[in-house]
Specification:
Blueprint lengths: L2 H15 L2 H8 L3 E6 L2 E6 L2 H10 L1 H11 L5 E6 H20 L25 H13 L8 E5 L5 H15 L5 E5 H13 L3 H9 L3 E5 L8 H16 L3 E6 L11 H7 L3 E5 L4 H14 L6 H10 L4 H17 L6 H11 L10 H12 L3 H4 L6 H18 L3 H7 L5 H17 L1 H19 L2
Helix pairs in contact: 1-4, 6-7, 8-9, 12-13, 12-14, 13-15, 14-15, 16-18, 18-20, 19-20, 20-21
The structure holds adenosine-5'-diphosphate and magnesium ion.
The site of adenosine-5'-diphosphate has 15 residues, from helix 7 and helix 14.
Length: 451
């Protein structure tokens, strides 16, 4: 029997003893990858997965394996990430010995930060496209230097590494130099101390691609900027690509020398914006899949409604959900997710305010009856009260789009999205609406805190 059909048999056995949700969440993603000496090798998406299965379903798994493989069947787990690291490790040295060269620098590229794993949305599309172009056309692109800027946790470092990974893939011998601005500073300072400035210059000025992360930390460091200026010029003049990231538009960054800023302006600066609701949903779906958890759509929407700041926080929330479910030995359900989200946003979400509460308060304030709010009329003041109610349901309670749609006169989720966007826009223009929303939010949130 080969390992695929063997696994099918084991899987079938497990289905008889374990509930569907356990099968779907923990066993479905497992891939059998080998069978040797009665040992079946199973690939799991991550370490966490493997620990979870070992602590929860070990006995059932052993039984099923023993029953399916005669003569002392065993199993062994292997984590996906380890596998891919192994395979790159074994292939690259061969490549290099063939050409009789050693790798020029040890590069600390994060292998997981690739273009393939970067989720694209309107907030980051331009930055991603420009980065890909730079990686493909190396120095020949008109985007030199390329500067990617934006707030924390939005994927700047990810793109920077993705460029490095892509360049390396296209040409394993290229000399990629990656450093944070702090590392650059440290290297520079050390080179002064031990009189190794030549080595320093070599390391940085021999780059085919120079990737510098977080240049805002160059601020106020005159000497380092001086060094960087020379490094920059030398590379730039020999047509080498330079990519940098920053926490804001370079032109608005105080503490950088004008001559550096004017160099930067000869290239392209692209920004990454915070992800909007739809993009947050997409990110959560993708990231939970990558982590091997199956989160129901409602749960995903709930997280996307409350965790708004950045991708790192979205990722962190998923990890936290996994950790909590592991620590407390609980299946991942809505309650668990709500607890985690509540912790992360500092307790200001509600489980206790209902759609009815929202509609009642909006009705009192707007003088539109509750019945009209959930009805079909398109009269302006009624439609506005309805949109406001929909908006608050999403914002305060985190009700899913489709549930809101159903509640408010059987509309579909696109109508709800439209309502939310309309109110978002009105909030910035119409002070009356802004005030109403804030006071309703405060009032309804207070009622949560007091329960
Ligand atoms: P920044 O450097 O802007 O502070 P990072 O690049 O470190 O942010 O991103 C924080 C985390 O979020 C990383 O784990 C990164 O992989 C992930 N991330 C950010 N943006 C995306 C995206 N668009 N798609 C997938 N993962 C992303
Ligand atoms: Mg970063």
């Amino acid at each position: 029997m080969n390992y695929t059909s063997l696994w099918q048999k084991i899987y079938g056995d497990l289905t008889k003893t374990l509930p569907d949700h356990a099968m779907n969440t923990w066993f479905e993603p497992i891939k059998p990858i080998a069978l040797a000496d009665n040992e079946i090798v199973l690939e799991v998406p991550n370490q966490f997965f493997y620990e979870w299965i070992e602590s929860h379903y070990k006995a059932q798994l052993i039984n099923a394996v023993v029953a399916s493989i005669s003569d002392g069947g065993r199993y062994r787990f292997i984590v996906s990430a380890e596998k891919s690291e192994l395979s790159t490790d074994t292939s690259s040295p061969k490549n290099e010995t063939a050409k009789g060269q050693k790798p020029k620098n040890k590069i600390n590229l994060n292998k997981n930060y690739t273009f393939e794993l970067f989720i694209e949305g309107s907030n980051n599309q331009f930055a991603k496209t420009a980065s890909e172009k730079v990686a493909e056309e190396l120095g020949n692109s008109s985007f030199n230097p390329l500067i990617i800027y934006g707030g924390v946790g939005l994927g700047k470092t990810h793109l920077l590494h993705a460029i490095g990974n892509k360049v390396l893939k296209n040409n394993p011998m290229s000399n990629i130099v990656l450093a944070t601005s702090e590392k650059f500073t440290l290297d520079f300072v050390n080179s002064l101390r031990v009189n190794k400035s030549i080595e320093f210059a070599k390391r940085y000025r021999r780059a085919d691609v120079l990737l510098i992360d977080d240049i805002q930390f160059f601020r106020g460091k005159e000497q380092t900027q001086e060094q960087f200026f020379h490094t920059f010029n030398e590379l730039y003049q020999s047509g080498k690509q330079i990519v940098m990231t920053a926490d804001r538009f370079p032109g608005e960054m105080g503490g950088l020398q004008d001559r550096l800023l004017s160099r930067f302006q000869s290239g392209l600066s692209v920004d990454i914006q915070p992800p909007d609701f739809e993009i947050r949903v997409a990110i959560l779906m993708e990231k939970s899949e990558q982590n091997g958890v199956n989160l129901p759509y409602d749960v995903i929407e709930f997280i996307a409604t409350h965790i708004k700041s950045n991708v790192r926080d979205l990722e962190g929330t998923i990890i936290r959900i996994l950790a909590r479910s592991s620590l407390l030995n609980q299946e991942i359900d809505f309650n668990l997710v709500r607890e985690v989200v509540k912790e992360r946003v500092g307790g200001v979400i509600s489980s206790d305010v209902t759609i009815e509460d929202v509609v009642r308060r909006v009705s009192e304030i707007s003088k539109v009856s509750e019945r009209e709010i959930v009805g079909k009329s398109r009269k302006m003041e009624i439609a506005e009260a309805r949109q406001l109610s929909m908006y608050l349901c999403r914002d305060i309670i985190g009700t899913s789009l489709s549930n809101i749609g159903v509640y408010f006169g059987g509309r579909d989720h696109t109508t709800v999205i439209h309502a939310v966007k309309t109110i978002d826009k009105k909030r910035t223009k119409d002070e009356r609406i802004e005030k109403t929303i804030n006071s309703l939010k405060q009032e309804l949130s207070l009622s949560i805190a007091s329960i």
